[in-house]
Batch of 4 targets.
Target 1
Amino acid sequence: MEHPIMYDEHDPVLARVREVALALPETEERLSHGRPWFHVVGRPAFAVYGSGTKGPEKVMHPHSVVVHVDDDERPARLQDPRFFVPSYLGPRGWLGLDVDGPDTDWTEVAELLDASWRRSAPARLLR
């Protein structure tokens, strides 16, 4: 069964996330599970646009970026109320950050995307 599209193609926040993510070397966008996923070509994903939490207090975060963070950064990030543990990917070390507010720090978003990209990129790109 195909997943329904869970984002608006004309979303200006998505456009900004795309601008930052697709500026990284050899990056492509693919649609999966109804959401835009960003990959280093031929490699696992390093970011997803939009997510939610599961459990009794399920919360949707349609304008968020989900990234894979380093294990040593995870505890500090979880102390920050802007971050959330996304469904399915959270147990694998991923965290989400809402990026639709006027106070969004796009430099921080770029740094998070870059760090997650580095976890996925092959050594030849990291050199």
Target 2
Amino acid sequence: MMHMTFYWSKKVTLLIDSWKTDSWVSYALTLLACFLVSAFYQYLENRRIRLKAISFETPSTTPQIQIPLLQPKLHGDKAKLGVKFAGAVLFAVNSAIGYLLMLAVMSFNGGVFVVIVVGLAIGYFFFRNEGEGPSLVVDSSCACS
């Protein structure tokens, strides 16, 4: 039976019928998985934002120290197309993870809900809190971003 209100129990079915918890150990491992996936969601969103920022950078006239692994120079249409494709793939993967997190919350288990919210907050703190200016606006189809 599917719950339609929040409940607190170690017995939960998450996403698929075969992912059922019936002991405290399996429930704790499920909560750990939810926490890690939600923090990873924020990490991937950070990577997508940085990729988007790199693709829209305009070359400046003042010489700067270039770090080749962190700030690749984009030359030509093929490089821009590659960055655009990589951004689309990151968006698709991140959207899929976001929707799976939403479906996990829709299990209405209180522990799953709390762990996912805490994982998103911790992931935001470590991965997305740095260097975001007020002028940076990123489109996202997921409500949990």
Target 3
Amino acid sequence: MALRAHRPTRHFKRGGICAATLALLAIQGCASVSSETTGSIGRSNPAQTGQPASGVPAAQLDGAVRSYGQAYQKNPKDKGTGLSYAALLQMVGRNDQSLAVMQQVAIAHPDDRDVLSAYGKALAAAGNLPKALETIRRAQTPDRPDWRLFSAEGAILDQMGKSDEARTFYRKALEIQPNEPTVLSNLGMSYVLTNDLASAERYLKQAVQQRGVDSRVRQNLALVVGLQGRFAEAKQIASAELDPQQAEANVAFLQSMLDQQNTWSQLKEKDKRS
């Protein structure tokens, strides 16, 4: 059950809350549209923090990118190599190059479901949302529906501003894969985009209770709690998996974003009156 909390952010404009959400998601390094993973809203920019999206040390990722890049050059039609190389490129923020790789893999494997799925996610990461949506839908098959594709479709629709439609697909994914934390997190973040923070918190709390939950889900919960003005609680949630300095930096960054949107003073006034 979600905590009963003040909702000062109900006065926020959609643009303001989205700006704070997308910016903090980027600073956390959440994968932009892995689309089946949380934080699927917005395009990440690892350069902002110097940290890759995955949390893997940069030197290790760079070595993997070079290794798979060499293997891809030798055989650009190999499905496994292409998928891995494209995924690594996205992890280091090289989305346009990842898309170029996936285009070549898709030409070699035009009817492969895994390839179409990865191609759709690469298109979304590069910002081509209509084409990404079309490709993800081509990958889906009515007789063998894939919950990951439903979640990816929902994430793309959210980025297109179609959150009501997006939630339909998240719920379809949950019918196939009940309590899947990545889908619950995407559903929660969908409610952030329409400023329903109580619903967002409820789904994110449900997500963090699941086994094997990605650390980014907890950071999304911290974000939503912070957007409601409960910064001490947000810092405590973030600190469970981040080092204290990074947790402090995330919360401070959120506060600065709210300052820029002229909402921080509203939050403080609400807290004083509570």
Target 4
Amino acid sequence: MLTVFEKSITKSPDALNIPDDSGADSALNNGFLAAHFASIHPGSVTINLGSSGFMAYSLEKQNPLLPKIFAVVDDIFCLFQGHIENVAVLKQQYSLNMTANEGIIVIEAY
């Protein structure tokens, strides 16, 4: 998984910062980073968040015991990896339909 956000959204670790005078294009401006991720992970999904950033993920080498689920409700995005044991109880508690998955449950609980 790869996520890149515009610096006003979140602060990046100092080790990942590029000095402003380097002349390098931003990963958001030129789209190179998202395209590169997609090229080395065929079948990956890239979600463009406009000027705020992007998310990309691949189901390649996924552990069948810890599945990855991507869910979106309104403007909330959730990439969930794992398993919730009391799904039926939580669906009833949050008045969710039968097709709601763990990602949607996490968003609704949040």
